[in-house]
Every structure is written in C-alpha cells, then in structure tokens.
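Record type: ASSEMBLY
Status: queued
Input:
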Amino acid sequence: MSTSSITFNRRSFIRTSSLASGGLLIGFNLFTACKPKVQPPVDISQLNFNDFNAFIKIADNGAVTIYSPNPEIGQGVKTAMPMLIAEELDVAWDKVYVQQGILDTENYTRQLAGGSQSIRLGWEPLRQTGATARQMLVNAAAAKWGVAPSECTTSEGVISNAKGETLGYGDVVKEAAIMEVPESVTLKEPKNFKIIGTDAQNVDIDKIVTGKPLFGLDYKVDGMVYACVLRPPAFGQILDSYDDTKAKAMPGVIDVIRIGEKAKELSKEGIGNWTVAMGKSDKVVVIAKTTWEALKGKEAISAQWVNGSVLESTEFQDKQLIGLLDGKEFKTLRKDGDINIAFAKADKTLERTYESPFLPHNCMEPMNFFANITDEKIHLVGPVQTPEFAATAVAGMLGRDVKDVHLEMTRMGGGFGRRLYGDFVYEAAEIADLIRKPVKLVFSREDDMTAGTYRPAIKYRIKAAIKDGHVTAYHLKEAAIGGNMYGLIPNFFPAGAIENYQVDVANYQSNITTGAWRAPYTNFLAFAEQSFFDELAEIMEVDRIQLRLDLLEKVKGSTDERIQYSPERMQNVIKVAVDKSGWGKKEDGVFQGFAAYYCHNSHVAEVADVEIENGVPVVKKVTCVVDCGIVVNPLGAKNQIEGGVIDGVGHAMYGDLTFMEGKPQSQNYDKYRLIRMGEIPVVESHLIQNEIAPTGLGEPTLPPAGAAVANALKAATGNRFTQQPFSKFPELMQVPTKPIIG
Amino acid sequence: MPKYDIKVNGISKSVDVAEDTPLLWVLRDHLDLVGTKYGCGIAQCGACTVHIGGTAVRSCSLPIASVGVQEITTIEGLSEDGSHPVQMAWKEVDVPQCGYCQTGQIMTASAFLDKNPNPTSDEIKTAMHGNICRCASYTRIHRAVEIAATKLG
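Status: finished
Output:
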C-alpha cells in the first residue's frame, strides 16, 4: 500500500447540510490544495445545492454524484476522471452519477482539454480526493461503533467492522461532514483496483443515442435570439462598408449590427495570430429569431472589402517556406556535437524535404456559443476547451470583473484543438454586450471551415550522415507558418541516439490564422521523421526495424534529463508491433509499412498493411501498439486508438486546404474530403500492460499513422510520398507491373 | 408566413415558417427536437438524417414546403427510451466519442436495416458511407450495425 501525504488544508474540504433540494450532502474540494494560496470560496453555510461544485456529493441515502471537472470533447475524460475518484472512494461504478462541473477557478485547477494531459495530471489528485472522502466516512463509522478505523473495511459504499456490522456511506455522511480531514491517506495498489482497468461505457451514452440536448448548439433559453456573422471572405481583407437594407427586410431578422471594437482591445494582447486577426477587421452580424433566418439574412448582406495586407496563395506560401529552408536564418532549439564536421566526414548523406498543407479542424459541431450579458452577470454557455482562459479574456475585453462571469461547458461535438481558441466566445460576448439579449452565435459549416485556426502548413528538411555503417549526424529543419514546434519536441526521438544532432526552426508570419490541431506539430513531424528513417535504412542496406532498435539502444542509461521518451518502452512497443502485425511474414500481395513515435507522454508503434485492389493500393489494416501506462478505461482507450489511427490515415490520404488570394478553396464537405466508412482500415489495437502511472491517449496514435501508410505505399508501389495528402499524387499510386524486390 | 401542418413522431404539428426553411431548422428551432444535428447544410455529412415515410433523408436540404403529409421520424421518435435495436447495439458497442454525429448515423443505419435486415459487411460500408464521423468511430459504427442486424434479422 502506498501512503500519500496530503497537503490539502482542512478548509479546502467543504461540506454543507443546508440544501435547497433537501437531503444531506458533503462536498469535497481538495483541488483547492493544488493552489495553496486560494481562500475557500465563500461561507459554506450560504451555499445551496446548485452553487456547490466540489468533486463528490454523497446524499444521506448514499447516492453518489461525482463532478467531472474537465471539458469533454470526445476524448472520454468525463467517464475516465470520475472513475479515478470512484475507485478510491470505493463505491460501485454503476451507482455513480456523473455530472459536468462548471468553470470554477476557485475550486478546480487546469479545467481544459488539450495536450492529452487530463488523466496524466489527474491521476494522483483525483485518487487522493476519493481516498480522503472514504477515510472520513470510515472514521465516522468507527467513532459510531467505538472501534478503531483500522478495524473497518469498505466495499461498494458499505463500511463493515470486525463484528460484521455494516453502515452505508449515507448512514454516516452527517458525522463524516464534521470529522477532521485526515493528514494522509492510503491509496490502493494497482492489483486491488476494481474500477480502474475495467470497461466503462461513455457516461453520456443514453443521452447521445436518444438525441437529448447535450451540445452547445442544443442549448436554448426563453427569449434567445440567433446571430450569424459575416467575416472577411479572404485572409488579409478588412470590412470597408456594407448595405443591410435587404437583410433587414427579411423575415425573422431583428437587427444587423457591426462588431469589432472590443475585439481590437483583445487583439492588443496578441495571444496568437488569431486574436491579432480578430482585431483587424470589423464584422457584420445578423440577429434573427431563428438560425435559418440568421443564415439567410447573412447571405443578403452586401459588403465591400478592402485589402489590408497581402492576399496569400498556397503557391506563394510554398515559396516562402522553401526559401526559409534554403536560407540561413534559423533559431536552434537543440544542438548536440557538431553536425557540420560529421557531414564533412560522412561516407554517405541523405536529405529529404517533407511538405504538409493547412488543415481545418472540421469539428462536426460547428463553432457556436451562448452569451447573455447584463450589468450584473456575464452568462456564457457552450463548447470551449479553455473555459478559464475564455472567461478571463471576455471579462478583460468588456472591462468587467472576472467574478461576473458564469461559464458552463457543454459536451463538445469534437475539439481537435479548434476549441482551444475562444474567437467564437469573444464574438458571442461582444454581440451580447451590444444587444443585451440572450443570444446564440452560430457558425455555418462554411464559416467554420473558412474562419479557422488551421493546422499550419509546414515543411521539414531532414539530413543525415552515415559513416562506417552508423548514423553519425541528424539535422532537422522546420519552416512553418504562424509558429514553430514547442519546447519539448526537439528532445523526442532521435535526440540522444545520434551524437551530432541539431534542430533548427524558421517561421513565416502569415495573416492566415493557425493554431493547435490534434497532436500539434508531431502530427506531421512524425510522418517526416518515420518516413526518413525508412529511407535511411534503405540506403544503409540495414533492416528498418533493427535500425530503430539499435538507435534506441544507444539512449539507454542516458543521463540527459532533457530526453522525453523511454528507449525501453519504445523498443517494447516496436517489438510487440512486429510480433502482432506478422511483420515480414505476410503472404504475397500484402505490403507493410512501419512507424513508431512518442508524443504526449505515450509510446506508440504502428504497422500498416496495404493491398492492391483494382490496380490501386488500399490501406486494409493498421496494427497499433500503445504504451500509455495503466489503462483507466480499456473500452474508451480502444475507441481513442481506433479513432486516432483512422484520423491519421484519413488526413494523410485526403486532408488539404489550399488558398487562392487569401480565400480558402474548400468551404464545405463537397470540396473537402474527410475519410469515410468505405475507406477505413481495420484497426487492431494492443495496449501494453504495466503499472506505470497513466499518460494521454487522445493524440498519440495519430502521428505515426501517416508514416506507416507512406512506408507501406513505398513497398507496394516503389514510390516515396513526401507530401500530404497522398491522394493529390495519383501518379505515385500506380502499381508497377513488375513485382517489387526488397 | 405560410403555415405548414406536418406529422413528427406520430404527433401533428403546425409551424409558421418561410417555405424554403429546411426541415432541420423547423425540427431544431421551432419544435425543440435537437437530436437532429446540423453538420454541413448541404447533405454531405448525414448528421441531420431523419426518416420520411421510412426512408433516410437529409433534413438540412429538404425545404418544409416539400415535406407534405408524409410521416417524419426523428431520433426522438425512433424509440421512446433508446430501446430500438440499433440504439441498443450502439450502447452495447459503446460507439460514440464526441457523439455529435451519432444520431444521424443511427437514423441512417435503422432505415437501411429496415430495408436490408441481413446485410453483408460491404453493404454496411456502402450504406454508412454518406455519414461522416470526424472522431472516426467507424469501426464501432460498423460493428454496431452488424449487431443490430442480428437482433432485427
């Protein structure tokens, strides 16, 4: 048993017995301890049921409600995070009622969805929360019986003593509420887990399959109006003037207004190029009684736009990025040894350039947000991955106290990074502040695809030196739009495995708005790197798996604390993938490609199987092996794996957003191709079993998929894909008439 | 504005809307039936799928004036309590990730299985090809349709 010292102070543990709904509940507010200087929220005697946002509520009938603090975007945390609490509270999972917590910066920390970090960072505190509550209930029962707490055991919400007497949690909740908070609690050993590691259905499954209101677009209040926004049609254009005569005469249209003043304030803070863009141009807003009338009203606006900056085309951007790669202006993120000496002494060198397009996020639920602003309160409701940031920014933008903001998170129809950026929250708030009515801002699909914060177009150039059969230098150069790879990525593989190693980045500041997209940067870097290692093995004439294993071997025992990945765990997933995929043992006609990648603290290896159908290579299967430590919910985990792999295959094959004079050339799904049912491979997933603390799973299986497919396509066609999407190069999809050797 | 009498989930409703208003927005904004989702507005993604006279139809591209007297079934009317075999299969497999597209997937699958209760794997793929799932829960959608078929067949 591991004893966990709790630094939580007693005041972070709040409880109440005066509930508007009747009944007696205790609430636990232990995350306050993660922010030690925070004062307890308010006088607890003044709290009522609806104000109470702690993690656990236990009613006097024993009913348990657990609040899931983080936003749910489809990654499964609304199920998995409460499972961690329930495990240590020792209650039956099927008796637990899970509810989404609201934004509450006083009582929760890190209420955001991003970077696949919710489970990793919640692992300790959430279990401690459950264990502390359990211990207080046990202490109360022990006092009632006049026995030592150590003589008591719990199981599924019932406390037993040595004499065989039992008390339900509800029977002692009143006494537990006035117990001292224990200074330390004992957490279960993994072998004693009853909930963690078992399959748990999505907690919202019944509501999802029956179409209950769950999502931002479903939220509605009496008197609510709808707003659709006309934004510049091209990046770089700004609003000059507009004629709203026709729109104002349309049925259901209430008003047409101009916004932008408040956004200019926000853009001064310059948080990413999307806020800067928000401040550049005013926008025209149609307010109507219904969504359709607002959408139609928007179409009836006639607006004139002027060019505020260069209207970029994809061809122009490509030239800028290639120019950067060819140039000398780089920022060096990591430098080991001296690559130039190694290149000078090399027997052979290999250099390749890999190119990716912009990608929109394409959440199935288009961006939207509800806002209702009065002098007393700023009420915001909707799907956002960064509620705390959004609330703070809205308060700042409107010159209001952040305490006026009440923000509720809805379930989100996808996130993929798009909902990290609150542009739609600020637009909704600015509109609501002007019209002073409850209003729902709705993006059409076209608005969603053309006013994005896209995955930036990126080009990588990788060069390696080979000397005496060893890789002696590795030089990775990145030219990206709107930002470069973040801090830790240069310390991913192959950092530490190659003596002379350098990562250089250069940036082109475009007026096209960019941001994080599922597995930011690594979503394409993994493709470049793992394609490159395959080519490297080919020119070195060595086994492609062995090359990777040998490089990893060199990292073992490294004292370099910057190295992020574990060479042992990476070697293991590679070996398991080789075994499970039947690597090298496939019958004729099955062409395999391999890739392995570490990101978001998890290790993944994938093998893609390509077969020829009607003369065209088709991805039939992907075997995916994941080491993300302890798997909290295998049912949800496998869903993430399957989705991540297919998403990775789909975007590598089809994802493409080009620009012509600043205008996105795809606006809807007629011209933007997403992978569909008829194109999916079978995904066979394998989760490594161990007792290491869990890490993320929302992102890590996506990055290696593109490289595994490209390497399999090379085997099938003899052609090397260095640009995405692959479907853009039908000539490379031609299958040679002669069989491929090697 | 013209008045339209329609029958949704067995109940007669009367709505005052412009004739070009898509059925999707009548359901969502006028009748509070928000289980039918807006995804693209151009009949490309399938999130808005409902049944009209038993056939799967994209409600985002069907003007209210074209609906007529045909019976409309939305996800809210597929069953009262989520007990339709397709919904049961969706729960058994635990299909959803974000869940937004799933009502449309279920409506497409249920209309398809009504017409073809014993489909092959390829027939399922063809039938479901028109419904996008951005989370790519496709392998589970496929499995759930197979399971529902065994329950219906």
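Annotation: Chain B touches chain A through 61 residues (CB under 8 Å).
Annotation: The mean pLDDT of chain B is 97.
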